[in-house]
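Sample intake sheet
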Amino acid sequence: MSIRSKKWIIELIGWGLSLILSFLILLPIYQAEIEFEWIKYNFFFLLASLTFVRYIFSFQYHPLGDSKIFKILLIFSAPLLFFPILEGLHSFLEFNDRIGLQSILGHMSIERQQWFIQYIRTEFILAGVTCFLGIFAVIIKMIRSLWRQYKFG
């Protein structure tokens, strides 16, 4: 097995673990049958956060880690994610401020509502902010990597 095929296997395992972890984090919301309208945003935030954090620390193991074109594509495509992230965070925070999460958790006991309010708010905001910061960190890392590749070959 070549090194390149091993790198593809590592990348596929990384994506698989990111998908599984994202699903596991959202599992309590699914199991409680909460009509959480930001679940797609939440899943996207989690998946993108885990992927960007993985790229920040282990991009050298990516099968396209030496490709200048791939790095340039990451630099220019990452900012396109900025607006969906901002829209999701803003709509969630606006709903939370104006109406409150209690409105979608009315079928639960008070103690369970309080736990889910804390869980959903913390998890959603943490995933969104991590995704947002990951975008900028990946852009900086790719620019630095391209510069080093240009300067040192």
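Comment: The first helix runs from residue 3 to 31. Residues 3-152 form one domain.
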